[in-house]
Every structure is written in C-alpha cells, then in structure tokens.
Amino acid sequence: MSLLLRYSKLGFEVTLRLDSRELECLAVTLHSSALVDISECSAETSAHLVWQRASRGRWRILLKGQPWEAEWSQAEDLYLQSDSLLDDLVRERLTTVPLLHAGGVVDAKGRALVICGASGAGKTSLVLACILRGWNWLSDELLCFRQKDSRMAEGFRRNFNLKQRSFSCFPQTSDLPGNREIMVNDSRKCIRFLNPDALRCGSFASSGIVAAIVVPAYDAGAPTPASTALSGLGLVQSLAPELRACDPVTLAWLAEIGRTVPAFALRYRTPDGAAEHLENLVNQF
C-alpha cells in the first residue's frame, strides 16, 4: 500500500503520495505544520505529487502525474524539491490575488508586521526571533492579500528553512521534534527545516492587519538595530530586485499599501535585538 499525505494551505488542499513506505519518516517532516492527515491508499490514487522509485535505485517525483525534471540518487533531494513544489501548487491557484514573497508576524492585538526582502535578508531569522518574544507567525516565505481589506495578510503554513548562519543564532531549534537537516550538495551547506509550532505550540496566526512593513539588511558592524522611514517610492525601490518577478496584481497592491502603511529599512546585527526594536516600533502606531 502507498501513503497519502494531505496538506491544507490557505484553504486549498494539496496531496503527496508515497509509493515507497521507506520514505515515510522523511515525508512526515515535510511541511508538517500544514499536514492534516495521513492515510493508506493504492498506487493509483490521484495526488499532486508522488515520490517513487525510478530505475537503478534512483528516486523521482511525479508532478500532476508526469515525471518532474531529473531523477536523484538521494531521497533527501525529493524533500528539497518538494519543499518548493508544494508552495507552487498553491501559488498557481491564486494568480489573480496579491502574493508577496515575505515573512510576517502578528502581535496580541492582531497587528501584522510584514518582513520583505530577498533571500538571505533575514526574514526567517526575524520571524523566529519575534516568535520567541511572543508574536504569532504568518509565514517566513509567502503572504496572501485576497481579502476586501487590502491590509489583511493571510498566513501561509509551511515549515521554516534555516540556513546554517541563521540557525546558529537559535540553539533552541536544534532538538525540536520533526526537525530535518539536509546538506545541499551543490553548495555543501546545511539547511534546517523546522515546524515553528514545535518551538511554541499554537503560534500560527491565520491573518493579521498590516501595521508596518520592514525591509531588513544584516550588518555585522551595526552596534544596535537602526530603522529609517521609507516612502512608498522608497519601499518599491528597495524591493526592486524582488519585484521583477512580481505580477501586475501584486505590484498594484504594493503601490497602494505603500501609501497607507508605514515602511522602514532596518539594519541589524542580531535577530533578537532586531525583534525587540521592531516590537517597540510597532507599539508606536
């Protein structure tokens, strides 16, 4: 028998079928924060993704029933590829609403802080640091704005992936249940995948009203975190590399939100110091 894993993201269901039970221990840690059910099924059961054996002892992924890209010798490669594919399966159903590559946290008053920037800017680290200060998390990767109120950010359940420089700042994430550490072969860098709910149970927020937008930049020489206000144009300019891949709907949303919500550039050295600074910043509104 095969296994069928069902995930719920933004109200959409996506599924992963395992045709080899030896992959179960690996698969149950994939996006476990969004995993709602595991059941037995047949090898003919329809699924968005399938993990199965290929020829010569290798592994492959089927995406919507068709072989996807290459075959791999290591099962961990299925994990790395599927981490993004599960997100993409949801993105393609939301082509007419704003989707922002960003992290987000929500305080006890329901105020959301959107953390933008390119990969490596520190989005995941800042979200984690805020969780440890009592904030709830929306996402470390993707936020959806499909409600009538354009400031309403919807949370996107997925496991966080921390690069080595980031997880070295968070020793409390080293032994969380369901962790998965994988070495990326082409860069020889280790990535730690973790379910943030294991860090603080019940810390996911389904939505929050955007109170501020921050664009962080790591600065090893910064003695203390420092933020400077950004105009709407300044916000767009600071995100220019990211926005090249954005659709017109998201660009229009960003132009509107940049006129109504305060935005800041943040330079920081440590995530915990930055999180405290951001908390004080939001409390000013």
Per CATH, the architecture of the largest domain is 3-Layer(aba) Sandwich
Number of domains: 2
H/I helix tally: 9
**What pattern of helices and strands is seen along the backbone?**
EEHEEEEHEEEHEEEEHEEHEEHHHEH
Protein name: HPr kinase
Keywords: Kinase, Transferase
GO molecular function: kinase activity
Description of the molecule:
With 285 residues, the chain is α+β, with helices and mostly antiparallel strands. The strands form four sheets. Strands 8, 9, 10, 12, 16, 17 and 18 form a seven-stranded mixed β-sheet that branches. Helix 3 crosses helix 9 and helix 6 crosses helix 8. 37% of the residues are buried. The model has no long low-confidence stretch (mean pLDDT 90).
Keywords:
globular, 285 residues, 18 strands, alpha+beta, Rossmann fold, 6-stranded mixed beta sheet, single chain, 7-stranded mixed beta sheet
